[in-house]
Amino acid sequence: MEGLATSRIISIQASRRQHYSAFLPTFSLKLQKISNGGQVWMMKRPKSFKSIAASVQPLEASTTGHFDNKQPSKVVLELWRSADAVCFDVDSTVCTDEGIDELAEFCGAGKAVAEWTARAMGGSVPFEEALAARLSLFKPSLAQVQDFLEKRPPRISPGMEELVKKLKATNTNVYLISGGFHQMINPVASILGIPQENIFANNLLFGSSGEFLGFDANEPTSRSGGKAAAVQQIRKAQGYKVLVMIGDGATDLEARKPGGADLFICYAGVQLREAVAVKANWLIFNFRDLINALE
């Protein structure tokens, strides 16, 4: 998911094809207390999910401009192969779309949210402010979110499932770090076999009648610099020697810092953000490049 920073963006359109039955089990609910003493209903993860496979047409080399980092250096390859943890952004990386924009469109506010996002992209806006502003435009109810999840299964980027299996086979731990919401990311994790404790994301909050209340501001990814903080937290807690961050946006690039990610790989198979891509250690358009590098 892209941070709110000005840059040239090239979108790569994805087509949909149903992979198998799109039926998704309904979420159950749990009552959870929040810091102000109130109570909210939060959605619990169902036992299983099914996905829609997405076919992405990568950009032609002639349209992507000149980048010196499309071929990894020897040092970058060594770091990738020796990583004991890999953290993935979700929107426009693991999945082929932006979750909040998809939910807004489903709720009838896609244009309004997209217009606000376009305005925000023109300047520096704190992430938490941008998140609150977008949600305030359509205030999704619990029923709407459940309906969305049942009718719009996750669209996983081509090669992602194979890459995660490959990483697991080499005993590399996989994490999902997102400014999106658990309600939409938990199904993705279920498909990929990533444990709940390896997800760092936000939570939508609902009242006792299922009405929208807001989002949990206690989550690190709910504010600016949150992804970098989450990566640092993971590394400190687990003591990983080599940690890699993979994503498409400025907030993913920020995770490459002392005590955080050693390597930032920019995935531009959905969105090419040139200001981010040029600063990456390795720019890829297909997850097959990463899979091949592990063989």
UniProtKB/TrEMBL annotation:
A Gene Ontology BP annotation from the UniProt entry: L-serine biosynthetic process
Record EC number: 3.1.3.3
Molecular function terms, GO-annotated: L-phosphoserine phosphatase activity; metal ion binding
Q: Is Hydrolase among the key words of this record? A: yes
* Highest taxon of the lineage: Eukaryota
Q: Which Gene3D superfamilies match?
A: HAD superfamily/HAD-like, Phosphoserine phosphatase, domain 2
Keywords of this protein's UniProt record, alphabetized? Amino-acid biosynthesis, Hydrolase, Magnesium, Metal-binding, Serine biosynthesis
User: What general EC class does the enzyme of this chain belong to?
Assistant: hydrolase
Name of the featured protein: phosphoserine phosphatase
Q: Where is the active site?
A: 89 (nucleophile), 91 (proton donor)
**Cofactor(s) listed in the protein's UniProt record:** Mg(2+)
Task: Look up the record and name the pathway of this protein.
Answer: Amino-acid biosynthesis; L-serine biosynthesis; L-serine from 3-phospho-D-glycerate: step 3/3
Q: Catalysed reaction(s)?
A: O-phospho-L-serine + H2O = L-serine + phosphate
Question: What SUPFAM superfamilies does this protein's entry cite?
Answer: HAD-like
The answer to keyword Cell inner membrane applying to this record is no
Which gene codes for it? LOC18604836
The family assignment reads:
Belongs to the HAD-like hydrolase superfamily. SerB family.
